[in-house]
Please model this.
Amino acid sequence: MRLILLGAPGAGKGTQAAFITEKFGIPQISTGDMLRAAVKAQTPLGIEAKKIMDAGQLVSDDIIIGLVRDRLQQPDCANGYLFDGFPRTIPQADALKEADIALDYVVEIIVPEENIVERVTGRRVHPASGRSYHVKFNPPKVEGIDDISGEPLVQRDDDKEDTVRNRLSVYRNQTQPLVEYYSSWAKSGDARAPKYRHLSGVGSVDEIRERIFQALEN
Ligand code: AP5
Ligand code: ZN
Model:
C-alpha cells in the first residue's frame, strides 16, 4: 500500500496514520516528525527549520524533497509507505511524479476550520514516537503520560492559536490546490494516477478510522 494522507493541520493525519501503517505494515513518512527530530537534535537543518515552523510557514521545497528522497531509499519502504504532511505544495507533488514514486491512493481528510483550532490547541504529543493525544477528545490513560512508553507528553511549539491560524492560511493557499491536482489526475485516465478519496474527519477517532479503511477497499 502506497498512499498520501492529505488534510489541514489538525485534521487527524498523524492519529489515523498510526492505524493505517499498522494494518498494512508500512512506514509513516511524516515530514513534520522528521523536521521536529532535526530541531531536537539541533542539526543545521533543525536550527533553520525551527524558525519557519514556529511562524507556521513552510520549509523550502528543495529541503523537503531531499529529505523524502533519502527516506525512500531505506529498506522499510520496499512494501509501501504512507506520506503524512507531504506533499504540501505543487512543486513537491511534481517532484514525486517526476521521480515516478508509485502511489495507490490519495486520501483527503476534511475537517472544518472551526473544529481545527480546538483540536490543535488541546493536542499533547509524545515526541519520540509522534503519537498524539487530545486533552478532551483523545486523552491518554494517565494525564500527561504516553500510554505505551510511560514518558511525558508535551505541547508542540507551533500549537499556539496564532500560529495555528497562520498554518491554516498557508494550508489554504499552498496545499489545498493539491486536491484539484490529485482529483483531476485520477480522472484523467492515466494508469499511474493514484485513486483519489475524500471523507469527513468529523466524528470519533474510531469512526474516521473505519471510513478510511473502507475508502481503501475499493
Ligand atoms: P506537520 O507536523 O505536518 O503539521 P500539520 O500538517 O500542521 O498537521 P498536524 O500534525 O498539526 O495535524 P494532524 O493532521 O497530524 O493531526 P493529529 O492527528 O495530530 O507540520 C508541521 C510544520 O512542519 C509545518 O507547519 C511546516 O513548517 C513544516 N513542514 C512539515 N511538512 C512539510 C512539507 N512537506 N513542506 C514544507 N514544510 C513542512 O490530530 C490533531 C489533534 O486532534 C490531536 O490532539 C488529536 O488527538 C485530535 N484528534 C484527532 N482525531 C480526532 C477526532 N476524530 N476528533 C477529535 N479530535 C481528534
Ligand atoms: Zn501530524
User: Anything to note?
Assistant: The pocket of BIS(adenosine)-5'-pentaphosphate (ligand 1) is lined by residues 7, 9-15, 31-32, 35, 52-53, 56-59, 64, 85-86, 88, 92, 119-120, 122-123, 132-134, 137-138, 158, 167, 203-205, 208 (CB under 6 Å). The chain is about 45% helix and 15% strand.
